[in-house]
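Data card: per-record layout.
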Amino acid sequence: MRRFWCSLLIPGLFLLTISLAANGVFLQYARQQYQAVNAVRLDPLNLDYFPLTPPEQTPGVTAVFFGDSRAAQWPTPTGIDDIQFVNRGIGAQTSAQVLGRFDAHIRPLHPDILIIQMCINDLKTVALFPTYQEQIIANCQDNMNQVLQQATAMGATVILTTVFPVGEFPWPRRLVWSPEIDTAVSTVNTYIYSLAADNILILDAYDLLADQSGHLLPQFAADELHLNETGYARLNMELSDILQQMNH
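The structure for this 248-residue chain is written out next.
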């Protein structure tokens, strides 16, 4: 009888350990999300993220990266000495937040070129609010348009990037994910293609980074939403070509 109970005890302890570990992962994730939500409530636009005094600008062309974490993590292209690059991306921001800080973070820099990556933080909420999918997409497009209008009114040339594809999500996040997010990304990207103009150039990041099924290629992924160095190197090859064509 003792041997019987021992045979049950070991698997039971194993399952208990797995359960505690899983609960710990979920608790940590929930805490991170709760902190992020309340940080936004304290400072909705994060206007203090960058110094009020803009960096000293050298004579010549100024290019500014603008948008969410994907813009914030974008490294300066190498081998372009005649352009001064500045980064004004902030992680986790929606298109409304990006638009809301344009006057504080972009206008003082007087950029000649504005490189924009935005909207994924809007579109990933489709999983949480499926009945608002059309409104979320429409708001994203409207906010993007307002950023473009303000930038071009300043005389800047915009390099508007399509929304990066997303990768495979780890199991804790699949509870708050939906295939409709991929559909929303495709919808917004189709809209972005239509915005091309003399002063709005399209860098098709989605096409450069996605596999045949529309997911982020593993060799470019730091995680399910962000790029690694190889991914940004791929984008910078295309960005460098666009910048060189602009100078000719």
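Known properties of this structure: The mean pLDDT is 87. The longest helix spans residues 2-42.

See the next section for split statistics.
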